[in-house]
C-alpha cells in the first residue's frame, strides 16, 4: 500500500477513535474497537511509513508484535478493572 | 571473432533472497535496536498506567474527563501528517533522486511537529493554571510523566529532522546513499507510533 493511502486510512481511523471518545462509549465492545483501531494504525505506520512492508523475516514482525503485546496488556488491565 | 547477442548465455536469475526483498530494515541497524529499546520502555509505561487504573477506575475516569480530547486528536493528526511528510521525503530522495523535493517534505514534517509542541504546551499551561501537578493524584502523575516523556522525544525528533533537512538541501543523500535519512525517519515514525497508542489509552479508553 502506498504512503498516501495509508495516510488517508490513518486519518479516518483517528476520526473513528475520536468519535468513540466523544460518545463516551465504555466497556468491552468499545475497548475492543479502540484496540483494533490502535493496532491497525500502528501497523500502517510500521509497514508503509517505516518501510518494513518489503522487508522479509523477523524485522517485519517485531514492531507489530510490540503493538500486539501492548494491546494485550491493556486488555488484561482493563478486564481486571471491570471485574474489580 | 564477433559474438552475437544470441550466443551469449542468459543471465542467471537473481537468488531468491534478493528477489524476495531485503532481510534488514532501511537505515542503520543500530537505530532499530535503539527504537526497540525505546518501545519497550514505553510499553512498561503503558502497562503501568493501565494496571494503576485498574486499582482506581473511578478516579481515572473522572480525571480523564478533564483532558482536552479534541486537542489530543488534533495532535494525532499533526503527528500522522508529519510522519507522512517524512515518508514522502524518503521516497523523494531514494526513489525519485529529488533532494529539493525531499527537503520540502521534511520542512512540512518539521512544521507539523512544531504544531504538536504548540498544542501540547497550551494543554500543559491549562493544567498548570488549574493547579494540577505531578503530586495531584495518580492519574495526573501518569498523564504528566507519560506525555512529557513523549514530548521530549518529539523535541529530539525535530532536532533530527532539522539536521536531515539541512543535509538533504545540500544534496548529501542520494538513492543508495541515504542511510542517515532513513535512520532519522525511522526514529520519527517511532515517535508517531508511541502517540498512536498513547492517545486512545490516556484520552479515550474508559
Summarize this structure briefly.
The complex is a heterodimer of chains A (84) and B (206). With 84 residues, chain A is mainly α. In chain A, 82% of the residues lie in helices and 0% in strands.
Blueprint of the fold:
The complex is a heterodimer of chains A (84) and B (206).
Chain A: H1 3-23, H2 28-49, H3 58-83
Chain B: H1 16-19, H2 29-55, H3 57-64, H4 69-94, H5 99-129, H6 138-169, H7 179-204
Helix pairs in contact in B: 2-6, 2-7, 4-5, 4-7, 5-6, 6-7
What does this structure look like?
The complex is a heterodimer of chains A (84) and B (206). By secondary structure, chain A is mainly alpha-helical. Chain A is 82% helix and 0% strand. Chain A contains three helices and no strands. In chain A, α1 packs antiparallel against α2 and α2 runs antiparallel to α3. The model of chain A has no long low-confidence stretch (mean pLDDT 94). Chain B is mainly α and 206 residues long. Chain B has a single domain (38-204), classed as Four Helix Bundle (Hemerythrin (Met), subunit A), CATH 1.20.120.80. Helix content of chain B is 75%, strand content 0%. Chain B contains seven helices and no strands. Chain B has helices at residues 16-19, 29-55, 57-64, 69-94, 99-129, 138-169, 179-204. The mean pLDDT of chain B is 92. At the A-B interface, α1, α2 and α3 of A face α2, α4 and α7 of B.
Amino acid at each position: 500500500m502506498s504512503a498516501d493511502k495509508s495516510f488517508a486510512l490513518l486519518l479516518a481511523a483517528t476520526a473513528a477513535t475520536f468519535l468513540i471518545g466523544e460518545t463516551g462509549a465504555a466497556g468491552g465492545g468499545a475497548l475492543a474497537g479502540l484496540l483494533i483501531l490502535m493496532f491497525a494504525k500502528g501497523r500502517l505506520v510500521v509497514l508503509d511509513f517505516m518501510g518494513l512492508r518489503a522487508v522479509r523475516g523477523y524485522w517485519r514482525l517485531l514492531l507489530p508484535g510490540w503493538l500486539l503485546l501492548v494491546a494485550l496488556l491493556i486488555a488484561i488491565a482493563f478486564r481486571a478493572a471491570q471485574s474489580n | 571473432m564477433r559474438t552475437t547477442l544470441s550466443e551469449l548465455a542468459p543471465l542467471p536469475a537473481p537468488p531468491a533472497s534478493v528477489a524476495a526483498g531485503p532481510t534488514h530494515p532501511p537505515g542503520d541497524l543500530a537505530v532499530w535496536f535503539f527504537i526497540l529499546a525505546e518501545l519497550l520502555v514505553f510499553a512498561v509505561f503503558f502497562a503501568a498506567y493501565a494496571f494503576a487504573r485498574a486499582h482506581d477506575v473511578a478516579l481515572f475516569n473522572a480525571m480523564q474527563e478533564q483532558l482536552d480530547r479534541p486537542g489530543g486528536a488534533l495532535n494525532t493528526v499533526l503527528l500522522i501528517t508529519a510522519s507522512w511528510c517524512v515518508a514522502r521525503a524518503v521516497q523523494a530522495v531514494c526513489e525519485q533522486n529529488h533532494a529539493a523535493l525531499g527537503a520540502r517534505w521534511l520542512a512540512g514534517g518539521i512544521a507539523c511537529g512544531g504544531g504538536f509542541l504548540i498544542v501540547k504546551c497550551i494543554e500543559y499551561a491549562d493544567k498548570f493554571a488549574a493547579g494540577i501537578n505531578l503530586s495531584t493524584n495518580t492519574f495526573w502523575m501518569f498523564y504528566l510523566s507519560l506525555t512529557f516523556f513523549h514530548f521530549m522525544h518529539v523535541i529530539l525528533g525535530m532536532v533530527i529532522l532539522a539536521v536531515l533537512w539541512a543535509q538533504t538541501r545540500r544534496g548529501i543523500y542520494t538513492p543508495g546513499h541515504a542511510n542517515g535519512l532513513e535512520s532519522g525517519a525511522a526514529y520519527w515514525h517511532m515517535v508517531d507510533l508511541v502517540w498512536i497508542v498513547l492517545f486512545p489509552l490516556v484520552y479515550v479508553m474508559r
